[in-house]
Design a protein that fits this description.
This protein is α/β, with parallel strands linked by helices. It has 14 helices and 17 strands. Helix 3 links the parallel strand 6 and strand 7.
Length: 481
């Protein structure tokens, strides 16, 4: 399953510059004055996207574009995919050729500085309307985000530079599938910095990960489950948790001929998963999707069959917004589902929806994008229908950042433009560790995740922790025995 995760970045710069400058000296994006834009990976439009981004950045005057990483303060790396989602007829009475193409896709960027140190990242997805030129749409949005980040007055801290100083050891982890694509990159990058440290992570679901950690089978676990639910576990008092990142759970669907993004109210999602809403052309779905060509077809409901933190996030949201759901189904990592068929892990749910006509499911945002699946906007507490992206996740993160400590639940944020099904995810570790090498490697890994690693997460569609939360988590690390 891990093989299917995106390998986002390669290095091969190919643009001309007028003179030689010092090599990658920038310690933050705001310090960079000269940049090199490497060749982008992913599909036939990668070259067009790269050249369009270079044009956008050159016009700004903020950076000098140079021809190789060796001549640059910082290097931009990228990966992209663009696909056709369908078509909209401009005039229903006109010939079939008179139609507008609707695209899906993403452009994922990472900027690295001295020694490959991550400086910034972002995943750009298309605007929500019909696009005449998706290449320029993605590249202009990417340039805007990069330029805004370069003007930030207070860059995030970098991890202490002690590459290779850890003793040789291995760490085994397992658990949440929700953050697995990002965790795989984080753990590989950390191991590259510390060649003597080997890290393995099995995305088996939050519940099995917690169970394996409690049984002493692994060195750390990934979990999306709120603290009070973990505290019900008999060994919870012997476990410490560190927040790592935020992500979104999105409703994915497979409807032939429906090219536009659907809009779901919370009540509609609860109704579908309770079996009350059975067909795609139900009045409750049509009411919020006027003009969509919804089929008169039975909804194939897909849910997780294993103990899942993603299920916990999904069912926790439905419990908050639907009294009927809260009283009859409730919240948990495993549920007694009223309807639907189960699939293992996020990858399994994404595959099932991709291969099942007229289906609906729920996965973390990255899995939806990886599988080129449509996912709907969800109405939030303010009454806005919000499509999950990094901006709407950032709004949810900011609304949760007041205390510093990540709250157990951030779903259904009151922020006007926040995506409502959002969650922190955590790494769980034993409160004590007799093996000094493992203890040192684990603490250093967590410290790197909370500093340098935060600058990588947005390339995968996850939102970094708010500054206040990072500071609180770093303090928690300092208090570990």
């Amino acid at each position: 399953m891990v093989k299917k995760y995106l390998v986002l970045f390669v290095c091969a710069a190919v643009f001309a510059a007028p003179h030689r400058v010092p090599a990658q000296r920038a310690g933050s994006l705001s310090q960079a004055r000269t940049i090199s834009v490497d060749a982008f990976t992913g599909g036939p439009t990668a070259v067009q996207l790269r050249l369009s981004l270079i044009r956008q950045l050159s016009r700004s005057g903020r950076f000098q574009i140079v021809d190789s990483p060796q001549k640059a303060d910082a290097v931009v790396k990228g990966s992209s995919q663009i696909w056709v989602r369908g078509f909209i007829k401009i005039d229903p009475r006109a010939p079939e050729a008179n139609r507008q193409t609707i695209y899906g896709g993403y452009l994922s960027l990472e900027v690295v500085g001295a020694g490959g140190q991550p400086l910034w990242s972002w995943m750009i997805t298309p605007e929500r309307l019909a696009w005449s030129n998706i290449v320029d749409d993605l590249s202009s949005h990417a340039a805007k985000k990069l330029l805004e980040a370069s003007e930030a007055a207070h860059p995030a801290p970098a991890a202490p530079s002690n590459s290779g100083s850890l003793a040789q050891t291995s760490l085994a982890g397992a658990g949440a599938t929700f953050p697995a694509p990002l965790y795989q990159k984080w753990f590989q990058d950390f191991a590259d910095l510390h060649p003597g440290v080997e890290i393995r992570y099995a995305p088996i679901g939050s519940q099995l990960g917690i169970d394996d950690l409690a049984a002493g089978k692994i060195d750390f676990a990934g979990s999306d489950v709120a603290p009070e639910s973990d505290n019900e576990h008999s060994s919870a008092q012997h476990i410490r948790r560190i927040a790592t990142v935020l992500g979104a759970v999105v409703p994915i669907y497979n409807l032939k001929g429906v090219s536009r993004d659907l809009r779901f109210t919370p009540e509609t999602l609860a109704g579908i998963y309770m079996g009350r809403i059975k067909r795609w052309n139900d009045e409750e779905i049509r009411r919020t999707n006027k003009g969509a060509d919804l089929p008169d077809a039975e909804i194939a409901v897909i849910h997780r069959s294993d103990g899942s933190g993603t299920t916990w996030v999904w069912s926790n949201f439905l419990s908050q917004v639907s009294p009927a759901w809260a009283s009859s189904v409730g919240c948990g990592t495993t549920l007694k589902w009223p309807v639907g068929i189960g699939a293992e892990h996020s990858e399994g749910v994404a595959d099932a929806v991709q291969n099942t006509p007229n289906s609906i499911g729920y996965v973390e945002l990255t899995f939806a994008i990886q599988h080129q699946l449509s996912f709907g906007a969800v109405r939030n507490k303010s009454g806005e229908f919000i499509h999950a992206d990094l901006d709407s996740l950032a709004d949810a993160a900011r609304s949760a950042a007041k205390s510093g400590e990540p709250p157990s639940v951030i779903s259904d944020s009151s922020a006007r433009y926040a995506y409502p099904i959002a969650s922190f995810t955590w790494l769980l570790i034993p409160a004590s560790e007799p093996d000094a090498a493992k203890r040192a490697a684990r603490i250093e890994l967590l410290r790197w995740i909370l500093t340098s690693g935060q600058k990588e997460c947005s390339a995968f569609g996850y939102a970094p922790l708010p500054k206040e939360t990072v500071e609180a988590q770093l303090h928690a690390l300092d208090t570990l025995p």
